[in-house]
Structures are given as structure tokens and as C-alpha cells.
Amino acid sequence: SADLLPLDGLKKLGSSKDTQPHNILQRRLMETNLSKLRSGRVPWASKTNKLNQAKSEGLKKSEEDDMILVSCQCAGKDVKALVDTGCLYNLISSACVDRLGLKELVKSHKHEGEKLSLPRHLKVVGQIEHLVITLGSLRLDCPAAVVDDNEKNLSLGLQTLRSLKCIINLDKHRLIMGKTDKEEIPFVETVSLNEDK
């Protein structure tokens, strides 16, 4: 009710909307908020910035932790392959091709880079039609696009994952292949993609 409000400075209430009790309260609240803003003291701004900074650092860290790598063999050497559901094709970096000694298998790629929709703006520099990969007890003979990249990595694309009827089990940290005779490949602990040994 109006008689409970401290109406300092107001001589009469009248029937104007500006002099109604709820409008008076709103105006006073706005005046105090404006005076706080003008004085430059916004106590919640520094907390919000710290929170946003912590969130962005956490996202960067979780992106690295969220990569799914499995151990496989290619050209007789152990390789960590990235399970990449974001790309249709198998990819192998030019650095990995060099390290595995597969240069003689690389065929030139005739301007088909425009047709391939690749993540991360990767440039296709060649193609290996028959890349032999041993994943668990399964031996794969699959094509792979060679990308101009300094990272020593290999990635299994969605096309291969579908053909193998793969299930990615994030609870058990396993890549499960096959529908009837299932084989489980454990994920490799992710440290860095550059650490292929």
C-alpha cells in the first residue's frame, strides 16, 4: 500500500502513472543501478570474465582429451589412428607417409580436392588406393587421401567405420567392430597426435 512507502520529495500522489507506488520503486531502483554503473564498479564483471576464461581453457583441454585414438599397424609399424566421425574419408598425413615409407604408393590427386569435403581446411596432395592397415585381428585394404600436414597421424573416416560396423563405446573406452563376431579395440590414452612410436 502507498502509506508504507517512504515518499520523500513527493508532495502529492494524484492519479498520474508516474506517481504510482510501483513506478516510484522502479525509478529508484533504476537510479541506484545507474549510479553504480557510472561509478565504474561492476562487481560481477571480473567474476564473469574469470569464469569465461576458465570455460575456454577447459574446452581446449577437453578437445584434446576427447580425441579417440586406437592402435593399429601400417607398413609393419605401430601407428595410432584417430577415429574421425567428422570426415567421410580415411586420411593420412604426408609426414606419416614419409615415416612409414609409403611414398611409392601415393598417386597424384587430379584436382579432386574441391569434391572432397574435408575438415580443418586440409589440402589433398595425393591418394593411396590400397592402404593396408591391421586393426586388432582384422586386416583392412582401404583407400586414403594423403593430406599436406606435418602431423604424423592417420585417421579412419566414417566410410571405413560404417563398413566395419563399428560402435564407439565411450563408457568402456573401446571401438567395437563387427556385428556378429565382435572385436573390441581399446582406446589409446591421448597425449598428442605427434607421438607415433
Automatic annotation (TrEMBL):
Q: Which organism is it from?
A: Macaca mulatta (Rhesus macaque)
Give one GO biological process term: proteolysis
Per the record, the domain of life is Eukaryota
What residue stretches are annotated with the Aspartic peptidase DDI1-type domain?
66-169
Gene3D superfamilies (alphabetical): Acid Proteases (2.40.70.10)
**Which taxonomic lineage does the organism of this UniProt entry have?**
Eukaryota, Metazoa, Chordata, Craniata, Vertebrata
Molecular function terms from GO: aspartic-type endopeptidase activity
This one is known as Aspartic peptidase DDI1-type domain-containing protein
Q: Where are the transmembrane segments?
A: none
